[in-house]
Write a structure and sequence with these properties.
Helix 10 runs antiparallel to helix 22, helix 17 crosses helix 21 and helix 23 packs across helix 25. It is built from 26 helices and 39 strands. The longest helix has 35 residues. The strands form 12 sheets. A 5-stranded antiparallel beta sheet has the order 10-9-8-11-12. It has 4 domains: 163 residues, 3-Layer(aba) Sandwich (Rossmann fold); 177 residues, OB fold (Dihydrolipoamide Acetyltransferase, E2P) (Beta Barrel); 305 residues, no CATH class; 122 residues, Nucleic acid-binding proteins (OB fold (Dihydrolipoamide Acetyltransferase, E2P)). By secondary structure, the chain is an alpha+beta fold. The radius of gyration is 33 Å and the shape is globular.
Length: 1029
């Protein structure tokens, strides 16, 4: 080992330049991480293959500007030097440095890190007067030469650089070490990798155009980092993440200031940043530093509905109470991502630029500013969705500069829109690689998969003793969970079992499949497709607990007192099961309702098990209700597609009791597994908490409930649950549903966390009213469950052997990183699912004429009042949207005596529980929870996602809604009469047995009657209903 000195030029906290001399030690033995090594290097972990034609050593400039190209998995044998990594950290910041580190650590990418600055023969000191860039290039070239010599000339080494002087100086110095440009490298070695060529051209053009068009400053300069840090500590500045308003992106943005509300009550609602100038080049999601403006300049949020992104008004009468307002003075962290933009049609505006190839592309996300793109394909890309990345945003430019990455397709095409949704939510789901698929077990007709005899010997075999069955949505392929219940001990005890697919048996920790599953974190469900977290051989086959096949499982078995249902014993362990029945929800409900007339002995046993299961689930739910569990309401709509994926209907989800039964059993298993792993590993368990919502999040709920004459208590979850149960309008069941939907919207999001980072009082799950909770029951589609399965396995092993787990568990910091990653991906999955549902809602209405098609006219319920309109819910389609009562021309909606509405000149007046319009035709009033009739059409734009436009056409309920109410009333009367009769139930047809959901009269028959009566007068309808009942 040789001791030397390294001189660093750093900046102090006050901004002064400091010269630091540090000891620096050089070694002869430094790992080379090559499989061709003959020098016995300690190459632990990932190594470069020996079957490639060359190794690639990029210089500093290439990694700084072209790292995206080096991320292509096709490029193999890449050696990143320590010199390069340190330069990235110094010039690009921590985010880009972490991106490079993650690339090097990822075993799916064929690249390594060489510590050239610690290797005795590759280290080079900086010469006096030598520029930093030239010194870096010399260090990288020396490392390339060392690699070639170290491997005894068995592998050629290619150094890639954009420095023409370096190419001239070094290209012919050493045989076997080549120095070429990136363009030559791609043309010579990867001529068919077109995506890399296109990306290189795009980045190169962006770099050439980086200089601004003018020297005139459009924005103020950001303050230095040391000044920002000092200002934050002193309280002069406020730090937070910038959140741009979706509805008023041009003017409104806010800063969420966690932890500051206790110090300054003014900041409890956050900080407003009003206008683009005050935003000072910050983009949605950036971590920024804000200086508060004087109180006289504070603004309030606009309370009127916004019709479009370009029509924002700043009238004082439409603003809420003024809130702290500031301006951005610095950016601590850029959180730029991939953005989808649309290239506009070339017109006079675009051609006025000095360079006709510089285009202002419009982002799909309203919150992102236009991005200036330099390209030679401007004409070809018109009206296309294109993925771009932002490179810079100088103070002399009104817009950020960027480069293109990928062309998705023409705007408006289904595949383009789906890919846009994925990319906008940072969802990357490429096909599983060959290397990942090679890790999978084989299951084919020629070579069927069979259980390992060793596993059979180790596991508890439930195949001959337990009636196991699954209940899932119809057509479900990834069956995670099955259930069992039986009487034991002479009927004194019940044994409840939850059996979950044993995914961790097939997915080894640290394998390529495991890393890919961790990266995805979840299965992504869209309206017309899904993207699996695991390869299909696992998700749809060997891990799916299908009916009639033997499968490995992780089971939790409770012994319950048959009378009190108190737990007397619980068992956790690996099992072997064979599911006897693979039920869908509707069929399970039909069995519970006694609708299957023909039953054999085994089917009768299944029905008895379902009845016992329902009895236990009701008890479990009642126990949670006592603790304050919430029954919330969401908007779930399924797009019904034909074979060609054309949308034929929008179907709201119909709740069944069996849904609750299955959910209660899963919640119970998750709760008990959470207890087990937290008690065994107090500081290293992955749990899921649900924090209590902030009081101000309930404002919409409280205002609407109060206006409707209801009192909602939000002090605790128990008080909220009880007050929601009481908030019922006997004349309109939708009122309670709407209030529960508002309560759902007010909820904070449940989050995964490591128990080592939170105190135990923070473990509580507010919505479920449980002291500990986790996710264990869906390992096929959630990576968090895989982590929990491994923790449970380790806990079981410790109980068995009374020893520490063989493999060390992840520390609480590492586990917390995993938890945060999963939380982010879960949010992305929820947003993508919501956006895809909205996409198909628009597709359903897009091909219909709103003036003539009856599907475009629907009943809507008012659930919120705004300054210039109302917010409504359309239960038939699960749509929540604004309805404007005042348009851009100043006209207002006026309702005639028959309820029909038209536009007239007039004014709008808002109250807490209603809004009134006054015009020459008189005064029209729209009250909270009123039913009105709306016409639905599609608002199309090339640049952004399509949206639904709702227009009120009558202040009275839609005619079909009146029919539904009349049919339901008469059906309820008929139901009471039917219960008094003891006539034998008729045999059901196959179709009725498969699709019916409840006892007669059921939803299917009600909707059939509504359809038949849709064109009948109300008086006639009542007579027909009475007859059929």
């Amino acid at each position: 080992m040789i001791k030397t000195e390294k001189i660093l030029h750093l900046k102090s906290s006050r901004g002064r330049k400091v010269r630091v001399v540090r000891e620096h030690y050089l070694r002869e033995k430094v790992p080379c991480y090559s499989s061709l090594c003959q020098a016995d290097c300690e190459n632990g972990g990932k190594v470069l293959p020996g079957d490639v034609t060359h190794y690639v050593v990029p210089d500093v400039g290439v990694v700084l500007d072209y790292l995206e190209i080096l991320e292509f998995r096709e490029l193999q044998g890449i050696v990143f030097t320590q010199t390069t990594c340190q330069a990235v950290q110094h010039h690009k910041g921590r985010r880009q440095y972490n991106r490079l580190r993650n690339l090097i650590k990822d075993p799916r990418h064929d690249c390594v890190l060489f510590a050239n600055e610690f290797q005795e023969y590759s280290y080079r000191e900086r010469d006096k007067g030598e520029s930093r860039e030239r010194w870096h290039t010399r260090c990288v070239y020396t490392a390339a030469v060392w690699y070639h010599n170290h491997l005894a000339g068995m592998m050629d080494v290619v150094m890639i650089t954009e420095d023409q002087e370096a190419i001239t100086r070094y290209s012919s110095l050493n045989s076997g070490v080549y120095v070429i440009s990136i363009q030559d490298f791609l043309q010579n070695f990867w001529p068919d990798l077109q995506a890399a060529h296109d990306l290189y051209s795009s980045i190169s053009q962006a770099l050439q155009e980086k200089e601004s068009e003018s020297s005139q400053k459009e924005f103020s300069e950001h303050l230095p980092a040391e000044v920002l840090e000092a200002g934050i500590k002193s309280g002069r500045y406020v730090k937070g993440s910038l959140n741009v308003s979706k509805h008023r992106a041009q003017n409104e943005a806010s800063l969420m200031t966690d932890g500051l509300s206790d110090k300054n009550k003014d900041l409890s609602w956050g900080v407003m940043v009003f206008g683009v100038k005050n935003r000072n080049r910050a983009v949605h999601g950036d971590v920024v530093v804000v200086e508060l403006l004087p109180k006289s300049e504070w603004r309030g949020k606009v309370t009127a509905l916004s019709e479009g992104q370009g029509e924002e008004k700043s009238a004082e009468e439409n603003e809420s109470k003024p809130m702290p307002t500031g301006r951005v003075v610095g950016i601590l962290q850029r959180n730029w991502r991939d953005y989808v933009v649309t290239f506009p049609t070339r017109d006079g505006t675009q051609s006025q630029s000095r360079n006709s190839q510089r285009i202002l592309a419009v982002p799909w996300d309203h919150r992102i500013p236009k991005i200036r793109i330099s390209t030679q394909q401007a004409d070809a890309l018109q009206d296309h969705r294109v993925v771009v990345r932002i490179d810079s945003w100088e103070s002399t430019s009104l817009y950020p500069n960027g480069h293109t990455v990928q062309v998705l397709g023409r705007a408006g095409e289904l595949e383009s829109e789906i890919q846009t949704i994925l990319i906008e939510n940072c969802i990357h789901v490429p096909p599983f690689s060959d290397a990942q698929l090679r890790e999978m077990p084989v299951n084919s007709p020629e070579k069927p998969w069979r259980m390992d005899p060793a596993q059979v010997a180790e596991r508890r075999d439930l195949r001959g003793t337990h009636l196991v069955f699954s209940i899932d949505p119809q057509g479900c392929e990834d069956v995670d969970d099955t259930l069992s219940i039986r009487r034991i001990a002479g009927g004194k005890l019940l044994e409840l079992g939850v059996h979950i697919a044993d995914v961790t048996h097939f997915v080894t920790e640290g394998s390529l499949t495991d890393l890919e599953a961790r990266t995805r974190a979840t299965t992504y469900y869209l309206a017309d497709r899904r993207y699996d977290m695991l390869p299909a051989v696992l998700s749809a086959d060997l891990c799916s607990l299908l009916g009639g096949v033997d499968r490995y499982a992780m089971s939790v078995l409770w012994e319950l007192d048959a009378e009190t249902l108190a737990v007397t014993k619980v068992w956790y362990g690996r099992t072997i099961i064979c599911s006897s029945y693979q039920l869908h929800y509707e069929l399970a409900q039909a069995l519970l309702n006694g609708e299957e007339a023909e039953r054999d002995a085994k089917l009768a046993q299944l029905t008895k098990a379902l009845e016992m299961l329902t009895h236990v689930a009701r008890h479990l739910r009642a126990q949670r209700d006592k603790g304050g569990a919430l029954e919330l309401e969401g908007v779930e709509v399924r797009a019904q597609l034909d074979e060609e994926k054309n949308i034929t209907a929008l179907v709201p989800r119909q709740p069944l009791e069996v849904h609750e039964t299955v959910a209660e059993c899963m919640i119970y298993a998750n709760h008990w597994v959470a207890r087990k792993i937290q008690e065994t590993f107090p500081h290293q368990a992955l749990l899921r908490c649900h924090p209590q919502p902030r009081e101000d999040f309930f404002n919409q709920l409280l205002e609407s409930a109060s206006a409707g004459g209801f009192t909602i208590d939000t002090r605790t979850n128990k008080a909220l649950a009880d007050s929601l149960d009481r908030a019922v309008d006997p004349q309109d069941p939708l009122v309670n549903r709407l209030l529960r939907m508002m309560a759902t919207t007010a909820m904070s999001q449940a989050l995964y966390f490591s128990t080592g980072l939170l105190s135990q009082d923070k473990f509580y799950h507010y919505g479920l009213a449980l002291d500990r909770y986790t996710h264990f029951t869906s390992p096929i589609r959630r990576y968090a469950d895989i982590v929990v399965h491994r923790l449970l396995s380790a806990a079981i092993a410790m109980d068995t052997t009374r020893a520490e787990p063989g493999k060390p568990l992840a520390g609480h910091k590492e586990l917390d990183e995993t938890a945060q990653h999963i939380n982010n991906k879960n949010r992305a999955a929820q947003r993508a699912q919501k956006l895809s549902t909205e996409l198909f809602q628009c597709l359903f209405f897009k091909e219909r004429d709103p003036q003539t098609d009856p599907h475009c006219v629907a009943n809507a319920v008012i659930y919120a009042i705004r300054d210039n309109g109302v917010l409504v819910f359309v239960p038939e389609y699960g749509v929540k949207a604004p309805v404007y009562l005042k348009n851009r021309e100043g006209q207002v909606v006026s309702a005639g005596k028959d309820g029909g509405c038209d536009w007239q000149s007039g004014s709008v007046r808002r109250s807490s529980d209603h809004i009134s319009t006054t015009s020459i035709g008189g005064t029209s009033t729209f009250r909270l929870f009123d039913h009105i009739t709306v016409r639905i059409s599609v608002r199309s734009t090339n640049f952004h996602a399509d949206g639904l436009n709702l227009e009120v056409i009558s202040n009275k309920p839609h005619r079909s809604q009146q029919l539904v109410q009349e049919v339901v009333r008469l059906a309820e009367e008929a139901s009471q009469q039917a219960q008094e009769k003891e006539a034998r139930r008729p045999k059901l047809s196959k179709e009725e047995r498969e699709y019916r959901q409840s006892k007669t009269p059921n939803l299917y028959s009600l909707l059939e009657e509504v359809r038949e009566l849709a064109l009948t007068d109300l008086e006639t309808a009542a007579q027909v209903c009475a007859t059929t009942a």
